[in-house]
Amino acid sequence: MSTKFKEKPSRILFLIVNAVILLLITYVCVIPIWHMIMASLSNPTALNTHKGMVYFPLKNVDLQAYKIILQYSKLWSSYLNTIIYIVCTCALTAVLTTIAGYIFSRKSFFLRNGFIMIISFTMLFNGGMIPNYIVVKNIGLTNTALSMIIPGALNFFYIIIMRTAMDNIPNELAEAAKIDGASDLKILWKVILPLCKATFAVIMLFTAVAKWNDYFSALLYLTTRRDLYPLQMILREILITSTSDISTNSANIVENASIYKKAIEYACIVVSTLPIICIYPFVQKYFVTGVTLGAVKS
Amino acid sequence: MNRVVKNKKEKKPLKGYIMRGGIRALPHNLNIDFRRNKVVYLFLTIILSYFIIFNYLPMFGIAMSFQKYSPVKGIFGSEWVGFDNFINFFSGPYVGRLLKNTVLIGLLDLLINFPAPIIFALLLNEISNRVFKKTVQTISYMPYFVSTVVAAGLVINFTKSGGAISEGLAFMTGGVSENLLNIPEWFRPIYILMGTWQGVGYGAIIYLAALSNVDRELYDASKVDGARYIKQMWHITLPGIAPMIIMMFIMRMGSVFSVGADRILLLYNASNYEVSDVINTYVYRLGMKDMDFGMSTAVGLFNSVIGTVLLLTSNKVLKKLSGTSMF
Question: Are residues A58 and A80 in the same domain?
Answer without folding.
Answer: no
